[in-house]
Write a structure and sequence with these properties.
With about 350 residues, this protein is of the alpha/beta class. It contains 11 helices and 15 strands. It has a 7-stranded parallel beta sheet, with helices on both faces. Helix 7 runs parallel beside helix 9 and helix 7 crosses helix 11. The chain is globular. It binds nicotinamide-adenine-dinucleotide and uridine-5'-diphosphate.
Amino acid sequence: MKPFILVTGGTGYIGSHTVIQLQQKEYPVVILDNLSNSSPVVLDRIASITGNRPAFVEGDIRDRDLVRQLFRDYAVSDVIHFAGLKAVGEGEAEPLRYYDNNVSGSLALFQEMEAAGVFSIIFSSSATVYGNPGYSRFTEETPLNPVNVYGDTKKMVEDILRAAKRAQPVWQVALLRYFNPVGAHVSGMIGEDPAGIPNNLMPFITQVAVGKREKLSVFGNDWPTPDGTGRRDYIHVEDLASAHLAALNKLQGGESFLTVNVGTGRPYSVLEMVAAFEKASGKTIPYQFAARRAGDIAECYADPALAKTLLGWQAQHDVNRMCADSWRWQKNNPVGYE
Ligand code: NAD
Ligand code: UDP
């Protein structure tokens, strides 16, 4: 039997889509997740989509005994590390919890990997590591200068992996810097299910469409962008998932270290996203302009060239598909996984 891919955070939004693609490529998967931001129902949905239920260990990446036992129970070749907390505002309010979960948690995981002789890791980094450099198109050479706690945790974990690789060349590391994931599996069975009021644009729009929220607040209409609203590089979660398979393929082929942006290279404004969603769903999205959100930047998008050169990967799904799939998921699951 092929060795397992350990997917931390595998019941979460991006992890679950990646697990499906791994299983569809015949990789045996074991998920480690503490369910702090996900539901075990995801496992049933993955099983019905792929015909195969992934192995699941409920627990925390910081629980060293548990992680050690996991490496004894499962022959793992590679780790895809999604587990982490991701809300920017929450990180500002609870920095110690964020550094503990994201940085101490990752460090504990890496030390247990080392003890188990597992040295191949794909890490979920983020475009937030770049902060606000004063221009919009980010290459992998854009200096790392995070402006919030969440972004800082991502940079710190990147730093840890760069140092580990320098000291021990046996490590194989892929740092994937995601832009703005949206969309859902085409089946409408798995998707993004944020707890409470969504922080991010797309889940807020879909919750307005389904009648859960009254109207969208558009944070700022005086940004230096063509229509005055913020522009981001939205990427379909299925494309993001497939970037992990491309990175895994590279690492298994002997690649030793890579850092790539994962985006489309094409930014859309808030109003363009609203219009695209209305077209895809046939729903009207009422909105009002509100003050700029603290910490926001006008615009950012990926230079995706390196991902194409290094991984042979580029995004396939356009904004219409992103909106159609987000809507199908929300319409079929008006209260998420509950
Ligand atoms: P998510 O919250 O849906 O998934 C994360 C999963 O990790 C959840 O299932 C949660 O229960 C689990 N988890 C959290 N802390 C854990 C711990 N200590 N031990 C075990 N499990 C734990 O988030 P997502 O959107 O799927 O994001 C996955 C990764 O990608 C995160 O690291 C996130 O920071 C990163 N990322 C996300 C975005 C985005 O916009 N969604 C953008 C850039 C980077
Ligand atoms: N945004 C908005 N209303 C919302 C949520 C987000 O106008 O309720 C805007 C936000 O200001 C930004 C864009 O939508 O310009 C994307 O925000 P999101 O939080 O999804 O991603 P991030 O800011 O982390 O890139």
